């Protein structure tokens, strides 16, 4: 169904740029500045919109912004306060899909043009990306109507405010604004009621929480910088947050200065890495998940007794690299049933099996079946290698996928357990997509979808799930139903290296 969409611009040039570019929309011009906005607001009520977009040009505050960049407001601010705009995530995704350079963040409205570099620097220090004169007042008047604010940068922190008609950057900005137009209709048509099926368990597992806690406590206790070898967990938001607090992520130990503190990630490391750290006098804090450490222990045990050891896992994953490195040359990686048909054992009666902890249970079962058929005497760990959190989240996504039009899985592209959740949902017959956050949700996925399944990989922060649900709520009424397959109460102790001598953390 086509929503009644009103698009508001301030300038004639903006109005002209969008004329005929937003299908079935009512285009309005409010005039420039807060006084003209106040005089125009009664006309907004007369249009009775079901969706509202404030669109036009703006001044850039963030130094990284260039003329022609698009800013979609995550919130708008003025002297009266701030208003969060939660529904714009799919609009960000659509504009990026169109090839535009898009930024999502706060926007501030002032009562006059802000031209000086010093004045813009003061506004930039508040975290605002861009400045205009109309958006916040219009958004405030819109109330509960699904609303988005889209501005194209014309003047930047390093360029003066001049007449739009005489500035080449202005022509570029208006050209970009024309390309923005069709996406506004696409976004507006997402507005409407939905049901959300929320999988439980979801998000952080005990091993991930432990690893993040370890880095945070190391930053408190040890001299900075504190280095982390590889991503502490496979999630971009977690890594960026820890970087903001002072953690420095590196790929290898040769990037870590002698004598400093280094944290090993939750995925574990090979003994050779530990040996190098000891040789160089590094202060090592080990955040390896205890369940990964269990697989490492089994690898050493099986290899020590002379078994041929097969590891089911994904080539190049940090966890498999660490496990293979426990006994170099004595473990064979098996990625799928086809490879399981090809591997050989020195003694078919002395064969052992290990698995990466974040595999899809069904996929691993197919590969295990081949190995057990070919090597009936094969032995595995006394407890499951695939961790409880991976198994629980896969069972939970099954519980929502069968009744969902689309399933959104929160997680980063390098997160094995998150990717497996997408695959599990797809095997249940659902359309499923992996997204880092709400700004990666393409409108096409939600178009016509009235029941949306939502879950998150074990390395994805819970607040990302809340933001996705908030995005859907901002587009219309949402009924949330949580489907629980189990409740998790697992905890892991922290290493002594981040606990003070009295046993107090931090």
From TrEMBL:
Pfam families documented for this protein: LYTB (PF02401), PNP_UDP_1 (PF01048)
Record keywords: 4Fe-4S, Iron, Iron-sulfur, Isoprene biosynthesis, Metal-binding, Oxidoreductase
Catalysed reactions listed for this entry: isopentenyl diphosphate + 2 oxidized [2Fe-2S]-[ferredoxin] + H2O = (2E)-4-hydroxy-3-methylbut-2-enyl diphosphate + 2 reduced [2Fe-2S]-[ferredoxin] + 2 H(+); dimethylallyl diphosphate + 2 oxidized [2Fe-2S]-[ferredoxin] + H2O = (2E)-4-hydroxy-3-methylbut-2-enyl diphosphate + 2 reduced [2Fe-2S]-[ferredoxin] + 2 H(+)
Binding site for (2E)-4-hydroxy-3-methylbut-2-enyl diphosphate: 234, 267, 317, 357, 415-417, 459
Needed cofactors: [4Fe-4S] cluster
Cofactor comment: Binds 1 [4Fe-4S] cluster per subunit.
Keyword presence, Ribosomal protein: no
Binding site for dimethylallyl diphosphate: 234, 267, 317, 415-417, 459
Family listed: Belongs to the IspH family.
Top-level EC class as recorded in UniProt: oxidoreductase
Residues annotated to bind isopentenyl diphosphate: 234, 267, 317, 415-417, 459
Pathway entry: Isoprenoid biosynthesis; isopentenyl diphosphate biosynthesis via DXP pathway; isopentenyl diphosphate from 1-deoxy-D-xylulose 5-phosphate: step 6/6; Isoprenoid biosynthesis; dimethylallyl diphosphate biosynthesis; dimethylallyl diphosphate from (2E)-4-hydroxy-3-methylbutenyl diphosphate: step 1/1
Name of the protein in question: 4-hydroxy-3-methylbut-2-enyl diphosphate reductase
Species: Jatrophihabitans cynanchi
């Amino acid at each position: 169904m086509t929503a009644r969409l009103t698009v508001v611009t301030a300038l004639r040039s903006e109005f002209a740029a969008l004329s005929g570019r937003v299908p079935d929309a009512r285009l309005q011009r409010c005039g420039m500045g807060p006084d003209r906005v106040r005089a125009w607001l009664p006309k907004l009520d007369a249009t009775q919109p079901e969706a509202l977009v404030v669109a036009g040009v703006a001044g850039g505050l963030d130094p990284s912004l260039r003329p022609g960049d698009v800013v979609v407001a995550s919130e708008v601010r003025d002297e009266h306060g701030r208003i969060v705009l939660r529904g714009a995530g799919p609009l960000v995704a659509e504009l990026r899909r169109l090839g535009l350079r898009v930024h999502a963040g706060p926007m501030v409205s002032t009562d006059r043009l802000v031209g000086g570099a010093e004045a813009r620097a003061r506004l930039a220090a508040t975290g605002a990306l861009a400045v205009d004169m109309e958006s916040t007042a219009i958004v405030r008047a819109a109330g509960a109507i699904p609303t988005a604010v889209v501005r194209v940068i014309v003047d930047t922190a390093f360029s003066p405010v001049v007449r739009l008609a005489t500035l080449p950057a202005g022509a570029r900005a208006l050209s970009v604004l024309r390309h923005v137009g069709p996406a506004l209709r696409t976004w507006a048509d997402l507005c409407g009621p939905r049901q959300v099926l929320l999988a439980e368990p979801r998000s952080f597992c005990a091993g991930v929480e432990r690893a993040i806690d370890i880095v945070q406590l190391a930053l408190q206790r040890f001299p900075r910088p504190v280095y982390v070898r590889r991503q502490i967990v496979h999630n971009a938001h977690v890594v960026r947050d820890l970087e903001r607090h002072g953690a420095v992520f590196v790929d290898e130990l040769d990037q870590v200065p002698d004598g400093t503190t280094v944290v090993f990630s939750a995925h574990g490391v090979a003994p050779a890495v530990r040996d190098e750290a000891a040789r160089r006098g590094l202060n090592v804090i080990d955040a390896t998940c205890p369940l990964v450490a269990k697989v490492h222990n089994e690898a050493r045990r099986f290899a020590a007794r002379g078994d041929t050891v097969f590891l089911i896992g994904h080539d190049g994953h940090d966890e498999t690299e660490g496990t293979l490195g426990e006994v170099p040359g004595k473990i064979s990686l098996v990625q799928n049933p086809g490879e399981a048909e090809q591997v050989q054992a020195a003694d078919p009666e002395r064969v052992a099996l290990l698995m990466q902890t974040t595999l899809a249970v069904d996929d691993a079962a197919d590969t295990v079946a081949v190995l057990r058929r070919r090597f009936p005497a094969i032995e595995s760990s006394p407890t499951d290698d695939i961790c409880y959190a991976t198994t629980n989240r896969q069972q939970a996504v099954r519980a929502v996928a069968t009744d969902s039009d689309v399933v959104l899985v929160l997680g980063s592209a390098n997160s094995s357990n998150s990717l497996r959740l997408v695959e599990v949902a797809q095997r249940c017959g659902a359309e499923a997509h992996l997204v880092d956050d709400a700004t990666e949700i393409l409108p096409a996925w939600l178009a016509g979808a009235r029941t949306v399944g939502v879950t998150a990989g074990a390395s994805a922060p819970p607040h990302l799930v809340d933001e996705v649900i908030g995005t859907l709520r901002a587009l219309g009424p949402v009924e949330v139903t949580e489907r629980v397959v189990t409740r998790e109460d697992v905890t892991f102790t922290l290493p002594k290296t981040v606990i003070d001598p009295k046993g107090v953390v931090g």
